[in-house]
Design goal:
The complex is a heterodimer. Chain A is built from 5 helices and 8 strands; from the N terminus they run ββαβββαβαβαβα. Chain A is of the alpha/beta class. Chain B is α+β, with helices and mostly antiparallel strands. The chains are: A alpha/beta, B alpha+beta. The interface between A and B is large, with 55 and 46 residues. β1 of chain A pairs parallel with β1 of chain B, so a sheet runs across the interface. Bound molecules: guanosine-5'-diphosphate (GDP) and magnesium ion.
């Protein structure tokens, strides 16, 4: 649910990075944080365990600039990937405007990707959302590693409807901004549709 | 199918009314600062000594906190926990849900007291409920983004690309 405030002339949108544990969601946000000018970013919050695994969420507010005289803010969230944190994931999905599904491209993580994607669909459905009717992009992360699933296979299992997709190496930043830009664009276009 | 893009729109007039209520609450409760946050983590309005706290973080963490306690409430068969209080060494934080939709956060120190804050929050909540019920009614009546010109109706690809340049 985007939020338009005419008093402060601001518009806020919520984007959630979803995916299996350790696929690189937090790394995506960290890269965006590092590469964004101070005046455009807020504090990055990570509610993590001592072993730095996301416990509840990571949060990064980004101010992208103005559109038609309105300050445009994106609130980026990640979810904890581990299967047993499902309750937290549902909470974070509340009011989401756009989804980035981060897949771990390593062969042995294919099942985990599929399971997480199914879990995403179910959790959205519970709230009355249809993943394929909302702004949604996919990132195939960890492309730098040797044991990758072939891209055709990733596409076949994870992207049957051919939403925008990006190869990435979040650790070095490859594909990170392309992904963010694509989802931001879809979210803004959706707002435009809603305006009619 | 529910529409994901049920945009929450606030106009100047409404923000003005909200601001008046929390300004009064600030005075009446002797609080340090007061924030009104939407359940999705967006800051709606604030007042008092707000410069020293990162408002965006506060909004997101408050909403996360309310969501988590709401989950806990459901787990034990409650609808929600409408009020939370956290006591610090110097500063305390009083969090309450208004109209099932927004979160009122009051930060106060020894110049005020929990009893006073509680009392004044109750009154302010009633006033805020009236305002947010009006907003809800208006949304239902006209669809959320109609009414005033939606700034995004005329957005172009170039506008969007420029955001990232
Ligand atoms: N080789 C490689 N490692 C990555 C990449 N992205 C993330 N990682 C590593 O994968 C681990 C888990 O990343 P993290 O962002 O915490 O995963 P999350 O559970 O999805 O938040 C960390 O050790 C990262 O450094 C990548 O593109 N390539
Ligand atoms: Mg993480």
């Amino acid at each position: 649910m985007s939020f338009i405030n005419y008093a402060s002339r601001e518009i806020n949108c919520k984007i959630v990075y979803y995916g299996p544990g350790l696929c690189g969601k937090t790394t995506n946000l960290q890269y965006v944080y590092q590469k964004t000018a101070n005046e455009s970013k807020g504090k990055m919050i990570s509610l993590a365990t001592e072993s730095e695994r996301t416990l509840f969420f990571d949060f990064l507010p980004l101010a992208l600039g103005e559109v038609r005289g309105f300050k445009t803010r994106f609130h980026l969230y990640t979810v904890p990937g581990q299967v047993f944190y499902d309750a937290s994931r549902k909470l974070i999905l509340k009011g989401v405007d756009g989804i980035v599904f981060v897949a771990d491209s390593q062969e042995e993580r294919m099942d985990a990707n599929i399971e997480s994607l199914e879990n995403l669909k179910e959790n959205l459905e519970e709230q009355g959302y249809d993943l394929y009717k909302m702004p949604f992009v996919i990132q195939y992360n960890k492309q730098d590693l040797p044991n990758l699933s072939p891209i055709e296979e990733l596409q076949r299992f994870l992207n049957p409807t051919k939403v925008p997709e990006f190869k990435a190496c979040a650790m070095s930043g490859v594909g990170v901004f392309e992904t963010l830009k694509a989802i931001a664009k879809l979210v803004l276009l959706e707002l435009k549709k809603g305006a009619r | 199918m529910l529409n994901t893009q049920t945009t929450f729109v606030l106009y100047e007039e409404e923000v003005g009314k909200v601001k008046e209520v929390i300004d009064n609450l600030l005075d009446a409760s002797n609080a340090k600062s007061i924030y009104l946050v939407d359940k999705n983590g967006q800051m709606i309005a604030s007042t008092g000594n707000v410069a020293e706290i990162d408002a965006t973080s506060l909004a997101s963490l408050t909403a996360g906190n309310i969501a988590a306690t709401g989950g806990l409430a459901k787990l034990i068969g409650e609808k929600e926990f409408a009020i939370q209080f956290h006591e610090g060494e110097k500063d305390n934080i009083h969090i309450s849900i208004v109209s099932s939709r927004v979160i009122l956060v009051v930060i106060f120190d020894q110049r005020s007291s929990l009893g006073l804050v509680r009392l004044r929050v109750k009154k302010a909540s009633n006033a805020l409920t009236v305002i947010f019920d009006e907003i809800s009614a208006k949304e239902k009546a006209q669809g959320s983004t109609q009414g005033m010109a939606n700034p995004f109706a005329e957005i172009t690809d170039d506008d969007i690309d420029n955001l990232f340049s």
